[in-house]
From TrEMBL:
Coiled coil: none annotated. InterPro entries: Cupin_8, JmjC_dom, RmlC-like_jellyroll. Gene3D superfamilies: Jelly Rolls. It comes from the Eukaryota. Residues 73-226 form the JmjC domain. This is JmjC domain-containing protein. Pfam families: Cupin_8.
């Protein structure tokens, strides 16, 4: 049983559990790790969590562990209806669920705004959790960290409850959808949809099953008109390609040079490269400047650690 084996436990001095991946810091940002990650048994996690609550501490703990590789849970897993996520994925034309994660958190534990690049079937198992979701097309209004930052796919806004609208004024135009998840609820989170979650009960439990979305098929040519969802993916890809072309550690200066070139009408290398990419996806020339400014505005030339 899990009380005797070690699992991944995250510890935070506050209720916020900002996700990060140090392997993704290809931009070589001066990054200050916001959450401690340790391996300990479920029993240790449970005892420490209870102690923090008894002491009235602001600190919180959060367990996040994949279900894979836990042969000690075989008897328990045999009682689960695994065919449900498989059947849903097949019906939707996704790949088979290839990743999963169990989440167990203390009361008040909060997951800042972020998005997944896969289809997410989110099951609420125990207790209640509140959630706010935003569509992928709100990308610019959610101010994601640079794609070369450890917090890639995370919103610098962090929380929709107490956003810094002075730093992130475009967030005021974002349209969020709120719900309270109860035990037994299933929520579908589409590719790219931003979500923020907070536990309303101690030891609330959830499980995510992720499936891969089939790649866009351009075998018959690039469409004449991209959807807003597709253009949002273009924004991310554009930024990643600029990082590859001019060096990931130079992304900040490259994006600031791009913004300056657009505003001053200078014909510099980074702007030429960006225009060639946008022309390849048939974005009309008259729409390119606004599109490029949306990618850069409010996201570069700032102190990122302030929003981690």
């Amino acid at each position: 049983m899990w009380q005797f084996c070690e699992v991944l436990v995250k510890k935070s001095a506050t209720c916020k559990f900002r996700y990060f991946d140090l392997k993704k810091n290809i931009g070589k940002f001066d990054f200050q790790q916001p959450v401690e990650e340790v391996q300990e048994t479920f029993s240790e996690f449970s005892r420490e969590s209870e102690k923090l609550l008894e002491e009235g501490s602001d600190a919180r703990m959060y367990l996040q562990e994949t279900l894979s590789g836990h042969c000690e849970m075989a008897e328990e897993f045999a009682t689960w209806k695994w065919e449900l996520p498989i059947r849903i994925s097949a019906a939707c034309g996704w790949g088979l669920p290839d990743s999963n994660e169990l989440f167990v958190g203390m009361h008040g534990a909060e997951t800042p705004l972020h998005f997944d690049e896969r289809e997410n079937l989110f099951f609420q198992i125990r207790g209640q959790k509140e959630i706010v979701v935003f569509p992928f097309v709100d990308y610019k209004r959610l101010y994601p960290f640079p794609t070369t930052h450890p917090c890639d796919r995370q919103s610098m806004v962090g929380s929709p409850v107490d956003p810094d609208v002075t730093a992130f004024p475009e967030f005021l135009g974002a349209v969020g959808h709120f719900a309270t998840l109860k035990a037994g609820d299933l929520l579908y989170l589409p590719y790219g949809w931003w979500h923020w979650l907070r536990n309303l009960e101690h030891m609330a439990m959830s499980i995510s099953f992720w499936s891969t979305t089939p790649s866009t098929d351009f075998a018959n040519g690039i469409p004449d008109k991209f959807t807003d969802h597709m253009l949002t993916r273009v924004k991310r890809n554009l930024e990643s390609l600029i990082a590859q072309q001019f060096g990931p550690e130079n992304l900040n200066s490259s994006m600031l040079d791009l913004k300056k070139a657009v505003e001053s009408k200078e014909d510099v290398a980074v702007l030429q490269y960006a225009r060639s990419l946008l022309s390849a996806v048939k974005l009309p020339p008259e729409e390119q400047d606004g599109f490029l400014l949306e990618v850069v505005q409010g996201r570069f030339g700032i102190d990122w650690n302030r929003y981690v």
